[in-house]
Amino acid sequence: MTAEAKTETLGFQTEVKQLLHLMIHSLYSNREIFLRELVSNASDALDKLRFKALSDDSLYEGDSQLKIRLEFDEEANTVTLTDNGIGMNREDVIENLGTIAKSGTAEFLKQLSGDQQKDSRLIGQFGVGFYSAFIVADRVEVETRKAGTPTTAGVHWSSAGEGEFNLTSIEKAERGTRITLHLKEDAKEFASRWRLESLIKKYSDHIAFPVEMLKPVEVEEGEEAEGESAEKTATATEYESINAATALWTLPKNEIKDEDYQAFYKHIAHDFQDALTWAHNRVEGKLDYTSLLYIPAKAPFDMWNRDAPKGLKLYVQRVFIMDEAEQFLPLYLRFVKGVVDSNDLSLNVSREILQSDKAVESMKTALTRRVLDVLVKLAESEPEKYQGFWEEFGSVIKEGPAEDFSNREKIAKLLRFSSTHDTSGKTSQSLDDYIGRLKGSQEKIYYITAESYAAGLSSPHLEVFRKKDIEVLILHDRIDEWMMSYLNEYEGKSFQDV
Fold this sequence. Notes:
Helices cover about 35% and strands about 20% of the residues. The protein has helices spanning about 15-25, 35-50, 90-100, 105-110, 115-125, 135, 195-205, 225-235, 260-270, 350-355, 360-380, 385-395, 400-405, 410-415, 430-435, 455, 465, 480-485; strands spanning about 10, 70-75, 80-85, 135-145, 155-160, 165-170, 175-185, 210-215, 240, 275-285, 290-295, 310-315, 320-325, 335-340, 420, 445-450, 475, 490, 495. The strands form 3 sheets. It has a 9-stranded mixed sheet. Strand 2 and strand 3 form a beta hairpin. It is elongated.
């Protein structure tokens, strides 16, 4: 069958159509993030190839120098990004570029308000990935071939980001993916070396692979046009790396600026906003590993879907092993993003081995404590910042006492409640606050569960406590009653339902 005979037109998944329309018309203030998203995807493709090549180095096809290349053409008004990573076959292209394989899509679409500024912030929490290309381009072309497949197994994908996309079978000599953005008239600024280079340094400086661009051509003064043209031809294949290309987590902490940490967070989390805080640690001794853990500022849309993808990026001796390694943190900390790089796991580690590996269990215990310590420190040193965290993630933290018996006291320290002490109804009182206000010989922490703060505050059960001037915690979250069945005491004082 010829390549032409295999050309077909397919329609986007409905959610993709809605998301594309929204992005194209709303993300006017954040449009430069398209490059960060595409570079992150290219970096992931290189990571995946390197991992698969551990067991089959023929996938390198004689080229093991993994890299990303960035090109632009001012006259044609295009930007092109190429990687020599794992690449895609026809089925991968349809799945990855025609659908959104991410839970929370329906919830995301429900929350759209029609207000451009509000909706663009929502998109930032949702993540935009490949589709961000359409923020700056009115047409996008993708040429790709999966590593290890014949050169005739290439695929050409193209779309104007409206209702459909075209697929054609092509011949492609090199493995990997080449994405060409045909820029909109108002996005011409991106067909510029200075603009692209500055964005790479801003967003992607510390990804673990080189991002290369053609070396700028230096023309001698007084040189004629023919000479300039000849020099351009002569130097057309000279590329140079424009990013640091050093895995951030491997650098000493004193060499990393806050803006570097934040840029790396946005790279791995695909988030628009800065992280709330982070912890970067190197552990040596019985176990040898490095972790870089981030607490996001905003909850993701799929946080309440306990089956949604979650977990840390796992590297072994700097080689990428898997995304979303959920074995390193308990479920109630599923919002944490980051990287763990171990020297104590074997390079051919698989999901099955991970689930029964003693080193993994030890690392999980240590990483869980690390996250909890970061949150305790945040609550003590920056209570307002912590309050913002609690309003986003508090309900998930409440799953902790049931799931993590050994850390119940520490989790309880993080909990925040409404109380009769503060009739504003704000959920901001800690158990330490409550104990600090105890009078006399009170040995119990009193609480009441209710459907709302107002219902709890007006409960007749509180009358006797008001008369005796005894504070009562008012628990009005749907998860509270279940949580309290796992909390027996705190700081030696038992809980008592009034």
